[in-house]
Amino acid sequence: MMRFLVCGAVCGAALGVFARPTFAEAAPTLRSKAAVVLDARDRSEIFAKDADEIRPIASTTKIFVAMVVRKRDLDLDAWTKITQADVAEARGGARTRLDRGEAFRNRDLLRAMLISSDNRAPTALGRAVGLDPDELVVAMNKLAKELGLAHTRFTSPSGLRGNTSTARELATALAAALDDELLREIMRTEEVTVRSKDGARIEYRTTNAPLVEGRYDVIGGKTGYTEAAGYCFVTAARIDRHPVVMAFLGAGGKETRFADFNRLASWLETRGVTTGARPKQRESDEHRRVANP
Known about the structure:
This protein is of the alpha+beta class. The protein contains eleven helices and twelve strands. It starts with 8 loop residues before the first helix and ends in a 5-residue tail after the last helix.
């Protein structure tokens, strides 16, 4: 059975050692409604904007599905068939590439879910470890409690309906997911070919734009969108070789969350790094009234 650590020794090894920066200038203004930057090693706060506000989280939910099924020793090479239950769960979401009646290896279902956010994959993966959709939701809520996430609640495996958390708790959850070498590898993958048991080929490309852009060393992350949640993004990256975990919730546009990532990454990069004390940075009320350039 796997052990899940919250930015502990394994996370430190995976993400590297973080020296604490100090910043002389105010942090940038962001357009996302909530955001946070955490030290990847100890979860200490570097930047926060309404980081503890409870908000819908859309498909960032799927990192919890991945952790649950991995914790239950998912057989990566076994085949799982897409059923009507998977179709029902994905209804109302983005176009799926996993056809009903087709079977896929569980490793590829993880890839489809985390790289391109296919909404039929979560319940299929749950079934692969013996969990129906309701049982999967229960397991996800149990995992959130184990990780100490007091404000994270799930009602849907896909994230299409009702799931809520905070920017801070999502960043903490991603750090836990990145302790898993396989999940880290998948969430760092730009594109992959998935094959069904019958030989059909599906090409998936990541929705993580900063990973593709390559301006920063993105370790892995997950996007999400629903009308209620807006555009969401949680990711880990090395900025000037120093690892951080960031979360952005409630952005009004698809590219806005990525622009906010670049603003914060640039701010971190240009301020440099020291080993001295680091004051927390929060977007001021005055900053919030000023439109971004």
